[in-house]
Amino acid sequence: MANSAPPPPPATPSPASKLVRIIAVVILALIVLVGLAVLITWLAVKPKQLVFRIDNASARDFSLKNDHLNATFAFLIKAHNPNGRISVYYGPAEVSAAYDGQTVAFNTLAPFRQPRRNVTWLAATLVARDVALPRDVSTDLAVQKKSGNIGLVVRMKARIRFKVGIFRLKHHTLRVSCSPVKVRMPLFKNFETTTCDLDW
């Protein structure tokens, strides 16, 4: 009876496969280390949510004729950075005012930097110039004007970047929505502060 052939020797990994395995291990270790560094930094910094609110809003030169709106809206926006170790860089901020889902005024604010534990006041002047409105919206707006204030939705959109120590983090798009903002007519002095919702 013929003897069976001996089993082949185990295959020796090629140098190329060893190199690929080493590179994979190194990359995985780097990912873990970076993740731990980010987590530790995040816990050390203890980031807090930015806070926005509108402290004043008024309208002047308000005119509503033939379903066309002309007005100048002035908003005083309070931006609060409560963080003790994070400063914020804001790009140009787009600010708009809408009534019943329709944008009626728009403006862009200049870029600014907000230091740590800082309150920055933003004065936004938005002009509505011959804005055409649907008849029902125009009628409702006229009724609100007679009551002394107009309920608007004020939105702000800006590209922001956080700075922690010497590190600058990636850009985010910040969206701020404030509603309802009771814009007062010149003869009416009372204003209710409006808090804002944030999304990024």
UniProtKB/TrEMBL annotation:
Keywords: Membrane, Transmembrane, Transmembrane helix. It is found in: Membrane. It is a single-pass membrane protein. Its main location: membrane. Residues 78-178 form the Late embryogenesis abundant protein LEA-2 subgroup domain. InterPro entries: LEA_2, NDR1-like. GO terms for biological process: defense response to other organism. GO terms for cellular component: plasma membrane. The keyword Transmembrane helix applies. The chain crosses the membrane at residues 20-45. Pfam families: LEA_2. The keyword Transcription regulation does not apply. PANTHER family: HARPIN-INDUCED PROTEIN 1 CONTAINING PROTEIN, EXPRESSED (PTHR31234:SF39), LATE EMBRYOGENESIS ABUNDANT (LEA) HYDROXYPROLINE-RICH GLYCOPROTEIN FAMILY (PTHR31234). This is Late embryogenesis abundant protein LEA-2 subgroup domain-containing protein. It comes from Salix viminalis.
